[in-house]
Amino acid sequence: MSTDSDGEIELEYGLDDRPPWLKSVLLALQHVSVMIVPATAVAFIVAGEVGLGASRTAYVVQMVLLFSGLATIVQAYGVGPVGSRLPIVMGTSFTFVGAAVTVGIDYGLGAVFGAILVTGFVVEGLIGWQFKRIRPFFPPLVTGLVVVIIGLYLIPVGMDYSAGGVGATDYGAMHNVGLAALVLAVAVLLNLFTEGVTRLLSTLAGIAVGYAVAIPLGVVDFGPVGSAAWLAVPRPGAFTPSFEPVPIVTFAFLFLVSAMETVGDMSGITAAEGRPPTDTEFRGGLFTDGLLSSIGSAFGAFPVTSFSQNVGIVNFTGVMSRHVVGVAGVVLAVLGFSPKVGAAVATIPSAVFGGAVLLMAGMVAASGARLIFLHADLDRRNMVIMATSIGLGLGVATTPGALEGLPKAAETFFGEPVIMTALTALVLNTFAPGEQSPLFDGQSPEATSDVADTSVSGDD
Protein backbone atom coordinates (compact mmCIF):
# COMPACT_ATOMS: atom_id res chain seq x y z
CA MET A 1 0.00 0.00 0.00
CA SER A 2 1.48 3.34 -1.00
CA THR A 3 2.34 6.16 1.37
CA ASP A 4 2.55 9.90 1.02
CA SER A 5 5.43 12.13 2.07
CA ASP A 6 4.16 12.37 5.64
CA GLY A 7 4.15 8.60 6.12
CA GLU A 8 0.40 8.11 5.84
CA ILE A 9 -0.77 4.96 4.13
CA GLU A 10 -3.28 5.34 1.32
CA LEU A 11 -6.52 5.18 3.31
CA GLU A 12 -9.70 4.02 1.60
CA TYR A 13 -11.75 5.33 4.52
CA GLY A 14 -10.52 7.83 7.09
CA LEU A 15 -11.24 7.99 10.80
CA ASP A 16 -14.70 9.60 10.51
CA ASP A 17 -15.71 8.22 7.11
CA ARG A 18 -18.84 6.06 6.95
CA PRO A 19 -18.72 3.32 4.28
CA PRO A 20 -22.09 2.13 2.89
CA TRP A 21 -23.95 -0.09 5.34
CA LEU A 22 -23.41 -3.39 3.54
CA LYS A 23 -19.71 -2.73 3.14
CA SER A 24 -19.48 -1.58 6.76
CA VAL A 25 -21.05 -4.82 7.97
CA LEU A 26 -18.71 -6.95 5.85
CA LEU A 27 -15.68 -4.98 6.99
CA ALA A 28 -16.86 -5.32 10.60
CA LEU A 29 -17.27 -9.09 10.18
CA GLN A 30 -13.67 -9.19 8.97
CA HIS A 31 -12.55 -7.64 12.26
CA VAL A 32 -14.72 -10.03 14.29
CA SER A 33 -13.54 -13.11 12.41
CA VAL A 34 -9.89 -12.33 13.13
CA MET A 35 -10.25 -11.79 16.90
CA ILE A 36 -13.13 -13.97 18.07
CA VAL A 37 -11.18 -17.23 18.23
CA PRO A 38 -8.30 -15.99 20.43
CA ALA A 39 -10.66 -13.89 22.57
CA THR A 40 -12.87 -16.86 23.38
CA ALA A 41 -9.89 -19.21 23.56
CA VAL A 42 -8.72 -17.40 26.70
CA ALA A 43 -12.02 -18.25 28.41
CA PHE A 44 -11.94 -21.87 27.22
CA ILE A 45 -8.33 -22.35 28.38
CA VAL A 46 -8.85 -20.88 31.85
CA ALA A 47 -12.20 -22.64 32.35
CA GLY A 48 -10.70 -25.96 31.35
CA GLU A 49 -7.67 -25.60 33.63
CA VAL A 50 -9.70 -24.67 36.72
CA GLY A 51 -12.33 -27.35 36.06
CA LEU A 52 -15.46 -25.36 35.21
CA GLY A 53 -18.42 -27.32 33.86
CA ALA A 54 -19.80 -26.88 30.35
CA SER A 55 -22.59 -24.44 31.30
CA ARG A 56 -20.35 -22.14 33.34
CA THR A 57 -17.69 -22.25 30.63
CA ALA A 58 -20.28 -21.21 28.05
CA TYR A 59 -21.35 -18.35 30.32
CA VAL A 60 -17.77 -17.06 30.69
CA VAL A 61 -17.31 -17.18 26.91
CA GLN A 62 -20.56 -15.27 26.53
CA MET A 63 -19.36 -12.54 28.92
CA VAL A 64 -16.05 -12.24 27.09
CA LEU A 65 -17.91 -11.58 23.82
CA LEU A 66 -20.39 -9.18 25.41
CA PHE A 67 -17.81 -6.98 27.12
CA SER A 68 -15.45 -7.13 24.16
CA GLY A 69 -18.30 -5.67 22.11
CA LEU A 70 -19.24 -3.02 24.67
CA ALA A 71 -15.61 -1.94 25.10
CA THR A 72 -15.15 -1.77 21.32
CA ILE A 73 -18.20 0.49 20.97
CA VAL A 74 -16.92 2.75 23.76
CA GLN A 75 -13.49 2.95 22.12
CA ALA A 76 -14.99 3.90 18.77
CA TYR A 77 -17.46 6.54 19.97
CA GLY A 78 -16.48 7.51 23.51
CA VAL A 79 -18.53 8.22 26.61
CA GLY A 80 -17.27 11.47 28.11
CA PRO A 81 -13.54 11.08 28.82
CA VAL A 82 -13.73 7.30 28.31
CA GLY A 83 -12.90 6.01 24.82
CA SER A 84 -10.16 6.89 22.35
CA ARG A 85 -12.55 7.43 19.42
CA LEU A 86 -10.17 5.35 17.33
CA PRO A 87 -10.91 2.11 15.41
CA ILE A 88 -9.70 -0.21 18.19
CA VAL A 89 -11.23 -3.67 18.57
CA MET A 90 -11.21 -4.93 22.16
CA GLY A 91 -10.97 -8.50 23.42
CA THR A 92 -9.47 -10.72 26.11
CA SER A 93 -5.69 -10.86 25.86
CA PHE A 94 -3.47 -13.93 26.31
CA THR A 95 -1.44 -11.70 28.65
CA PHE A 96 -3.82 -12.70 31.47
CA VAL A 97 -4.08 -16.46 30.79
CA GLY A 98 -1.18 -17.71 32.89
CA ALA A 99 -2.06 -15.64 35.94
CA ALA A 100 -5.79 -16.42 35.65
CA VAL A 101 -5.06 -20.16 35.57
CA THR A 102 -2.58 -20.07 38.46
CA VAL A 103 -4.72 -17.83 40.66
CA GLY A 104 -7.87 -19.74 39.71
CA ILE A 105 -6.35 -23.04 40.79
CA ASP A 106 -4.73 -21.70 43.97
CA TYR A 107 -7.41 -19.25 45.15
CA GLY A 108 -10.50 -19.86 42.98
CA LEU A 109 -11.95 -17.83 40.13
CA GLY A 110 -13.51 -15.46 42.66
CA ALA A 111 -9.99 -14.25 43.50
CA VAL A 112 -9.28 -13.75 39.79
CA PHE A 113 -12.34 -11.57 39.27
CA GLY A 114 -11.78 -9.77 42.58
CA ALA A 115 -8.23 -8.85 41.55
CA ILE A 116 -9.46 -7.63 38.15
CA LEU A 117 -12.19 -5.57 39.80
CA VAL A 118 -9.64 -3.80 42.03
CA THR A 119 -6.70 -3.35 39.66
CA GLY A 120 -8.38 -2.77 36.30
CA PHE A 121 -9.42 0.82 36.58
CA VAL A 122 -7.03 1.70 39.43
CA VAL A 123 -3.90 0.86 37.40
CA GLU A 124 -4.95 1.83 33.89
CA GLY A 125 -7.15 4.67 35.11
CA LEU A 126 -4.21 6.20 36.96
CA ILE A 127 -1.94 5.81 33.94
CA GLY A 128 -4.58 7.33 31.65
CA TRP A 129 -5.33 10.19 34.06
CA GLN A 130 -1.66 11.16 34.29
CA PHE A 131 -0.67 10.26 30.73
CA LYS A 132 -0.29 13.89 29.68
CA ARG A 133 2.44 14.21 32.31
CA ILE A 134 4.21 10.99 31.43
CA ARG A 135 3.75 11.22 27.66
CA PRO A 136 7.18 12.87 27.09
CA PHE A 137 8.65 9.53 28.16
CA PHE A 138 6.81 7.73 25.33
CA PRO A 139 8.01 9.26 22.03
CA PRO A 140 7.59 7.41 18.70
CA LEU A 141 10.88 5.57 19.30
CA VAL A 142 9.51 3.97 22.47
CA THR A 143 5.92 3.41 21.35
CA GLY A 144 7.11 2.20 17.95
CA LEU A 145 9.27 -0.43 19.62
CA VAL A 146 6.27 -1.56 21.68
CA VAL A 147 4.26 -1.98 18.46
CA VAL A 148 7.12 -3.91 16.85
CA ILE A 149 7.47 -6.35 19.76
CA ILE A 150 3.70 -6.92 19.91
CA GLY A 151 3.76 -7.98 16.26
CA LEU A 152 6.91 -10.06 16.60
CA TYR A 153 5.81 -12.07 19.61
CA LEU A 154 2.42 -12.74 17.98
CA ILE A 155 4.17 -14.47 15.07
CA PRO A 156 4.96 -17.68 17.03
CA VAL A 157 1.33 -17.68 18.20
CA GLY A 158 0.25 -17.50 14.57
CA MET A 159 2.58 -20.35 13.68
CA ASP A 160 1.20 -22.51 16.48
CA TYR A 161 -2.34 -21.87 15.28
CA SER A 162 -1.27 -22.56 11.68
CA ALA A 163 0.05 -25.94 12.78
CA GLY A 164 -3.28 -26.81 14.41
CA GLY A 165 -2.92 -25.31 17.88
CA VAL A 166 -0.65 -26.22 20.78
CA GLY A 167 -1.54 -29.65 22.12
CA ALA A 168 -3.50 -30.71 19.04
CA THR A 169 -3.10 -34.37 18.11
CA ASP A 170 -2.62 -33.34 14.47
CA TYR A 171 -0.17 -30.52 15.26
CA GLY A 172 1.93 -29.82 12.18
CA ALA A 173 -0.18 -32.03 9.92
CA MET A 174 -0.20 -31.23 6.22
CA HIS A 175 -3.89 -30.29 6.20
CA ASN A 176 -3.32 -27.69 8.94
CA VAL A 177 -0.32 -26.12 7.27
CA GLY A 178 -2.12 -26.22 3.93
CA LEU A 179 -5.20 -24.45 5.30
CA ALA A 180 -3.08 -21.72 6.88
CA ALA A 181 -1.10 -21.27 3.66
CA LEU A 182 -4.35 -21.06 1.67
CA VAL A 183 -5.77 -18.33 3.91
CA LEU A 184 -2.50 -16.38 3.76
CA ALA A 185 -2.22 -16.71 -0.02
CA VAL A 186 -5.82 -15.66 -0.73
CA ALA A 187 -5.56 -12.62 1.56
CA VAL A 188 -2.24 -11.44 0.12
CA LEU A 189 -3.19 -12.00 -3.52
CA LEU A 190 -6.52 -10.20 -3.18
CA ASN A 191 -4.91 -7.32 -1.34
CA LEU A 192 -2.08 -6.82 -3.82
CA PHE A 193 -3.73 -7.63 -7.15
CA THR A 194 -7.35 -6.50 -6.84
CA GLU A 195 -9.14 -3.25 -6.15
CA GLY A 196 -12.33 -2.16 -4.45
CA VAL A 197 -14.32 -4.36 -2.11
CA THR A 198 -12.28 -7.51 -2.79
CA ARG A 199 -9.12 -5.82 -1.56
CA LEU A 200 -10.83 -4.31 1.47
CA LEU A 201 -12.28 -7.69 2.47
CA SER A 202 -9.17 -9.69 1.55
CA THR A 203 -8.61 -11.04 5.07
CA LEU A 204 -12.25 -12.07 5.50
CA ALA A 205 -12.19 -13.70 2.06
CA GLY A 206 -9.10 -15.67 3.02
CA ILE A 207 -10.74 -16.93 6.21
CA ALA A 208 -13.97 -17.78 4.34
CA VAL A 209 -12.12 -19.78 1.67
CA GLY A 210 -10.09 -21.59 4.31
CA TYR A 211 -13.22 -22.40 6.33
CA ALA A 212 -15.07 -23.69 3.24
CA VAL A 213 -12.15 -26.02 2.43
CA ALA A 214 -11.84 -27.14 6.07
CA ILE A 215 -15.43 -28.47 6.25
CA PRO A 216 -15.03 -31.36 3.76
CA LEU A 217 -11.64 -32.14 5.35
CA GLY A 218 -13.52 -32.95 8.56
CA VAL A 219 -11.63 -30.53 10.81
CA VAL A 220 -14.65 -28.36 11.69
CA ASP A 221 -16.38 -29.47 14.90
CA PHE A 222 -20.06 -28.45 14.95
CA GLY A 223 -20.74 -30.27 18.24
CA PRO A 224 -20.60 -27.19 20.50
CA VAL A 225 -23.20 -25.44 18.34
CA GLY A 226 -25.89 -28.00 19.07
CA SER A 227 -25.37 -27.94 22.83
CA ALA A 228 -25.26 -24.14 23.16
CA ALA A 229 -28.34 -22.15 24.24
CA TRP A 230 -29.96 -19.60 21.92
CA LEU A 231 -30.14 -16.85 24.53
CA ALA A 232 -28.53 -16.22 27.92
CA VAL A 233 -28.82 -13.07 30.03
CA PRO A 234 -25.73 -11.77 31.89
CA ARG A 235 -25.93 -11.69 35.66
CA PRO A 236 -23.65 -9.84 38.08
CA GLY A 237 -22.08 -11.86 40.85
CA ALA A 238 -21.97 -15.09 38.85
CA PHE A 239 -18.61 -15.63 40.56
CA THR A 240 -18.47 -14.15 44.05
CA PRO A 241 -15.32 -11.98 44.11
CA SER A 242 -12.71 -12.38 46.82
CA PHE A 243 -9.74 -10.12 47.44
CA GLU A 244 -6.34 -11.72 48.03
CA PRO A 245 -3.06 -9.72 48.15
CA VAL A 246 -0.96 -11.93 45.84
CA PRO A 247 -3.54 -12.08 43.00
CA ILE A 248 -4.09 -8.31 43.28
CA VAL A 249 -0.36 -7.57 42.95
CA THR A 250 -0.03 -10.04 40.08
CA PHE A 251 -2.88 -8.53 38.09
CA ALA A 252 -1.61 -5.01 38.81
CA PHE A 253 1.60 -6.00 36.99
CA LEU A 254 -0.39 -7.47 34.12
CA PHE A 255 -2.56 -4.38 33.73
CA LEU A 256 0.65 -2.40 33.36
CA VAL A 257 1.46 -4.74 30.48
CA SER A 258 -2.03 -4.19 29.09
CA ALA A 259 -1.58 -0.41 29.28
CA MET A 260 1.69 -0.62 27.37
CA GLU A 261 0.11 -2.86 24.74
CA THR A 262 -2.76 -0.39 24.34
CA VAL A 263 -0.33 2.51 23.99
CA GLY A 264 1.47 0.53 21.31
CA ASP A 265 -1.73 -0.49 19.51
CA MET A 266 -3.05 3.08 19.46
CA SER A 267 0.28 4.19 18.03
CA GLY A 268 0.00 1.48 15.37
CA ILE A 269 -3.50 2.69 14.45
CA THR A 270 -2.63 6.38 14.11
CA ALA A 271 0.58 5.48 12.25
CA ALA A 272 -1.76 4.91 9.30
CA GLU A 273 -2.27 8.70 9.33
CA GLY A 274 1.45 9.33 9.84
CA ARG A 275 1.07 10.56 13.43
CA PRO A 276 1.13 9.30 17.02
CA PRO A 277 -2.03 9.40 19.16
CA THR A 278 -2.95 12.60 20.97
CA ASP A 279 -3.08 12.91 24.74
CA THR A 280 -6.88 12.76 24.62
CA GLU A 281 -6.80 9.56 22.57
CA PHE A 282 -4.25 7.93 24.87
CA ARG A 283 -6.19 8.87 27.99
CA GLY A 284 -9.57 7.73 26.66
CA GLY A 285 -8.17 4.44 25.37
CA LEU A 286 -6.55 3.57 28.69
CA PHE A 287 -9.68 4.55 30.61
CA THR A 288 -11.69 2.11 28.46
CA ASP A 289 -9.24 -0.73 29.08
CA GLY A 290 -9.39 -0.33 32.84
CA LEU A 291 -13.03 0.63 33.39
CA LEU A 292 -14.62 -2.00 31.15
CA SER A 293 -12.31 -4.68 32.55
CA SER A 294 -13.38 -3.84 36.10
CA ILE A 295 -17.08 -3.71 35.21
CA GLY A 296 -16.84 -6.92 33.19
CA SER A 297 -15.22 -8.80 36.08
CA ALA A 298 -18.37 -8.28 38.14
CA PHE A 299 -20.23 -10.33 35.51
CA GLY A 300 -17.54 -12.99 35.04
CA ALA A 301 -15.55 -11.58 32.10
CA PHE A 302 -11.78 -11.61 31.87
CA PRO A 303 -9.94 -8.31 31.20
CA VAL A 304 -10.45 -6.65 27.83
CA THR A 305 -7.70 -4.83 25.99
CA SER A 306 -6.90 -3.71 22.46
CA PHE A 307 -6.33 -6.48 19.91
CA SER A 308 -3.12 -6.10 17.92
CA GLN A 309 -4.19 -8.26 14.96
CA ASN A 310 -7.01 -5.80 14.26
CA VAL A 311 -4.45 -2.99 14.16
CA GLY A 312 -2.87 -5.02 11.40
CA ILE A 313 -6.19 -5.18 9.54
CA VAL A 314 -6.49 -1.37 9.60
CA ASN A 315 -3.02 -1.00 8.10
CA PHE A 316 -3.45 -3.92 5.69
CA THR A 317 -6.78 -2.78 4.24
CA GLY A 318 -6.47 1.00 4.61
CA VAL A 319 -9.88 1.14 6.31
CA MET A 320 -9.44 3.36 9.39
CA SER A 321 -13.13 4.17 9.88
CA ARG A 322 -14.10 4.00 13.56
CA HIS A 323 -17.71 3.48 12.44
CA VAL A 324 -16.75 0.12 10.91
CA VAL A 325 -15.22 -0.92 14.23
CA GLY A 326 -18.33 0.37 16.01
CA VAL A 327 -20.40 -2.07 13.93
CA ALA A 328 -17.95 -4.83 14.89
CA GLY A 329 -18.57 -3.96 18.54
CA VAL A 330 -22.33 -4.30 18.05
CA VAL A 331 -21.83 -7.71 16.39
CA LEU A 332 -19.68 -8.90 19.31
CA ALA A 333 -22.21 -7.67 21.86
CA VAL A 334 -25.05 -9.47 20.04
CA LEU A 335 -22.98 -12.66 19.96
CA GLY A 336 -22.53 -12.20 23.70
CA PHE A 337 -26.28 -12.58 24.19
CA SER A 338 -26.47 -15.70 22.00
CA PRO A 339 -24.09 -18.49 22.99
CA LYS A 340 -25.25 -20.60 20.04
CA VAL A 341 -24.22 -18.00 17.48
CA GLY A 342 -20.94 -17.45 19.26
CA ALA A 343 -20.31 -21.19 19.30
CA ALA A 344 -20.92 -21.34 15.54
CA VAL A 345 -18.37 -18.60 14.87
CA ALA A 346 -15.90 -20.26 17.21
CA THR A 347 -15.89 -23.40 15.03
CA ILE A 348 -13.29 -21.71 12.81
CA PRO A 349 -10.35 -24.16 12.88
CA SER A 350 -7.14 -22.98 14.48
CA ALA A 351 -5.21 -23.44 11.24
CA VAL A 352 -7.58 -21.16 9.31
CA PHE A 353 -7.26 -18.51 11.98
CA GLY A 354 -3.47 -18.99 12.06
CA GLY A 355 -2.99 -17.97 8.45
CA ALA A 356 -4.71 -14.65 9.17
CA VAL A 357 -2.79 -14.08 12.41
CA LEU A 358 0.56 -14.52 10.68
CA LEU A 359 -0.37 -11.82 8.21
CA MET A 360 -1.78 -9.46 10.82
CA ALA A 361 1.16 -9.93 13.21
CA GLY A 362 3.58 -9.05 10.45
CA MET A 363 1.57 -5.94 9.60
CA VAL A 364 1.57 -4.85 13.24
CA ALA A 365 5.35 -5.15 13.42
CA ALA A 366 5.71 -3.31 10.10
CA SER A 367 3.48 -0.44 11.29
CA GLY A 368 5.66 -0.05 14.39
CA ALA A 369 8.78 0.02 12.26
CA ARG A 370 7.24 2.72 10.06
CA LEU A 371 6.44 4.81 13.14
CA ILE A 372 10.10 4.64 14.19
CA PHE A 373 11.54 5.32 10.75
CA LEU A 374 9.31 8.33 10.17
CA HIS A 375 9.75 10.09 13.50
CA ALA A 376 13.10 9.03 14.97
CA ASP A 377 16.63 9.57 13.68
CA LEU A 378 18.39 6.26 13.11
CA ASP A 379 21.65 7.44 14.63
CA ARG A 380 23.98 5.28 16.73
CA ARG A 381 22.19 6.15 19.98
CA ASN A 382 18.75 5.17 18.75
CA MET A 383 20.01 2.07 16.96
CA VAL A 384 21.53 0.83 20.23
CA ILE A 385 18.22 1.49 22.02
CA MET A 386 16.33 -0.42 19.33
CA ALA A 387 18.77 -3.34 19.35
CA THR A 388 18.77 -3.69 23.14
CA SER A 389 15.00 -3.34 23.53
CA ILE A 390 14.05 -5.79 20.80
CA GLY A 391 16.80 -8.22 21.82
CA LEU A 392 15.61 -8.40 25.43
CA GLY A 393 11.92 -8.45 24.47
CA LEU A 394 12.33 -11.30 21.99
CA GLY A 395 14.68 -13.03 24.41
CA VAL A 396 12.09 -13.41 27.16
CA ALA A 397 9.39 -14.18 24.58
CA THR A 398 11.27 -17.08 23.02
CA THR A 399 13.11 -18.36 26.12
CA PRO A 400 10.88 -17.69 29.15
CA GLY A 401 12.66 -20.37 31.17
CA ALA A 402 15.73 -18.15 31.38
CA LEU A 403 14.06 -16.17 34.18
CA GLU A 404 12.99 -19.12 36.34
CA GLY A 405 15.60 -18.25 38.98
CA LEU A 406 13.95 -14.89 39.75
CA PRO A 407 11.28 -14.46 42.45
CA LYS A 408 7.86 -15.35 41.07
CA ALA A 409 6.64 -11.75 40.96
CA ALA A 410 9.79 -10.61 39.14
CA GLU A 411 9.54 -13.53 36.72
CA THR A 412 5.94 -12.58 35.92
CA PHE A 413 6.83 -8.91 35.46
CA PHE A 414 10.05 -9.17 33.46
CA GLY A 415 8.87 -12.24 31.55
CA GLU A 416 6.39 -10.13 29.60
CA PRO A 417 7.97 -9.13 26.23
CA VAL A 418 6.06 -5.84 26.08
CA ILE A 419 7.18 -4.78 29.54
CA MET A 420 10.79 -5.79 28.91
CA THR A 421 10.92 -3.93 25.58
CA ALA A 422 9.05 -0.86 26.80
CA LEU A 423 11.01 -0.45 30.02
CA THR A 424 14.35 -0.95 28.27
CA ALA A 425 13.46 1.60 25.59
CA LEU A 426 12.05 4.01 28.17
CA VAL A 427 15.10 3.90 30.46
CA LEU A 428 17.67 4.08 27.67
CA ASN A 429 15.87 6.88 25.82
CA THR A 430 15.59 8.87 29.07
CA PHE A 431 19.14 8.47 30.36
CA ALA A 432 21.36 7.68 27.37
CA PRO A 433 23.59 10.59 26.26
CA GLY A 434 22.50 12.44 23.17
CA GLU A 435 19.31 14.04 21.91
CA GLN A 436 16.13 12.18 22.86
CA SER A 437 13.65 11.07 20.24
CA PRO A 438 11.12 13.90 19.68
CA LEU A 439 7.44 13.34 20.39
CA PHE A 440 6.37 14.03 16.82
CA ASP A 441 8.27 15.74 14.04
CA GLY A 442 10.41 17.60 16.54
CA GLN A 443 7.50 19.08 18.51
CA SER A 444 7.75 19.68 22.21
CA PRO A 445 5.37 17.98 24.66
CA GLU A 446 3.47 21.24 24.98
CA ALA A 447 3.03 21.54 21.22
CA THR A 448 1.78 17.99 20.98
CA SER A 449 -0.67 18.64 23.80
CA ASP A 450 -2.06 21.52 21.76
CA VAL A 451 -2.72 19.06 18.96
CA ALA A 452 -4.69 16.94 21.40
CA ASP A 453 -6.95 19.86 22.18
CA THR A 454 -7.94 20.44 18.57
CA SER A 455 -7.71 17.13 16.74
CA VAL A 456 -10.44 15.29 18.63
CA SER A 457 -13.82 16.79 18.07
CA GLY A 458 -15.58 15.17 21.02
CA ASP A 459 -18.50 12.83 21.23
CA ASP A 460 -19.89 11.60 17.96
Verbal overview:
- The chain is mainly α and 460 residues long.
- It has one domain.
- It has helices at residues 21-50, 54-77, 97-107, 109-129, 131-134, 140-162, 174-193, 197-200, 202-217, 223-227, 245-270, 279-297, 308-317, 322-337, 339-345, 350-375, 380-398, 408-414, 417-431, 445-455, and strands spanning 90-92, 304-306.
- Strands 1-2 form a two-stranded antiparallel sheet.
- It is globular.
- Residues 1-5 and 440-460 have low confidence and may be disordered.
Key features of this structure:
2 strands; disordered N terminus; mainly alpha; 460 residues; 68% helix
What's the number of domains? 1
Can you give the mean pLDDT? 79
What value does the Rg take, in angstroms? 21 Å
Number of helices: 20
As an assembly, this protein is single chain
The profile of the biggest β sheet is: 2 strands, antiparallel
Helix/strand structural class: mainly alpha
Number of strands: 2
Low-pLDDT residue intervals, each spanning 5 or more residues: 1-5, 440-460
Strand order of the largest sheet: 1-2
Distance between the termini: 29 Å
Element order: H for helix, E for strand: HHEHHHHHHHHHHEHHHHHHHH
Please give the share of residues in helix: 55-70%
Shape: globular
DSSP strand content:
under 5%
